[in-house]
Protein: 6-phospho-beta-glucosidase
Organism: Ligilactobacillus salitolerans
Amino acid sequence: AEDKREFPADFLWGGAVAAHQIEGAYQEGGKGLAITDLFTLGDKDHPRKITETIEASEYYPEHVASDFYHRYPEDIKLLAEMGFKCFRTSISWPRIFPQGDELEPNEAGLKFYDDVFDECLKYGIEPIVTLSHFELPLHLVQEYGGWRDRRLIEFFARFAEVCFKRYHNKVKYWMTFNEINNQTNFEVSGHLYTNSGIVPEAGEDREKLMYQAAHYELVASAQAVQIGHQIDPEMQVGAMIAMCPIYPLTAKPEDILFAQRAMQTRYWFADVHANGFYPRWMKHFFAKKGFDLDITAADLKQLQAGTVDYIGFSYYMSFATKYQGQADFNENRDLVDNPYVKTTEWGWQIDPVGLRYALNWFTDRYHLPLFIVENGMGAYDQLTEDHQVHDDYRIKYMQDHIIQMKRAVLDDGVKLLGYTPWGCIDLVAHGTGEMSKRYGFIYVDSDDHGHGTFDRYRKDSFFWYKNVIASNGAEL
Ligand code: P53
């Protein structure tokens, strides 16, 4: 890449993780169970199971994860060595409210994140924090049916308020719900459960459940934005959207129209977050479907009053779709392979140009600053005898994406706050539970079953990314 231009001087280079995928220590410090503590190990052909109780015959990768809970000083020191300006993680909700519905928080949990954030700040690394990254307290599922229940709005608002009050001097950039729009694919039970803690009963309309839960989450998010601004007007509270642009497979007008509806269906969550109201098509859609959702006038006021300050988003891949007479877009049914792009070993379409497309699309639609809070490629790595990892494939993926990001910022004028590639320290893959589906610059010596020394090693990409940051993106 011969584009030697630099990014803006204040650009936030960093990396991202999530509490449940990296911390482990699932029963330490007074933590309650999170829904993800009952996800078993799967692989690309076998989905993870969700068990009702912890079974001795099953393996639950999140219980140990990368042991960040005990090793964070060493990990953050390595991030500092790479020159990180920021580090995105989440606050595990059940570390702060073990059951989710208590009135008083758990001090040991609060103290843990104070320590993590202080360790970052010691090196000038700015923590970027997601409040809810699939870490719903299990009790809220068992007692309330997850986000089926309006009372979760209150529980989430209390959690947000406690975190904002405690950390507002240490954390400026927050996000409310990680990839809130993954549940667009409501037919895949894993999405409805990880986003909303919902287990549909036989005969229940999953689609309606999804819209109701998402509504409550969006109201809770809007409340959190308002609470955050009251506590500290400097605080920036954002959305977190999983951005997979959905292209029409051909230029046939019917395909174009259908892809437009697909985008509306997958990204209305961002419309509500950013605009503060539901897009017009949805009223007709709900009426057509006969959904009588619990959406009150007071809720609509909340949405309007709590619009987000920026859009955080993940970008891994793009999708494509084709019109075949469908009445509505159904993500589980209507995606087709794009013949112009390659895929990863897990079948994710690799599309760097789609990142520039996404950055422009968000900018035109919302006129807000953007933050790429996840990007990367899961891959099997080989640790050599002398503890090296030659991950040129990872470097290539990131080079290609950063080039497009650079063009969006410098040629298209997109306001981009920063870039935090996913899983900067190896962690448990969310979709499959595999440790061997790796994203990191830092190798963690553990296998899918948690066997290993858990020692950390610098991959080739570690040295490459260090130079990217040092040159502010001039040297890719
Ligand atoms: P894993 C679907 C599509 C895009 C991103 O995924 C997704 C998902 C759900 O799996 O999830 C995000 O680990 C999520 C992270 C996750 C990461 O992508 O399955 O925010 O928690 O680890 C990568 O390879």
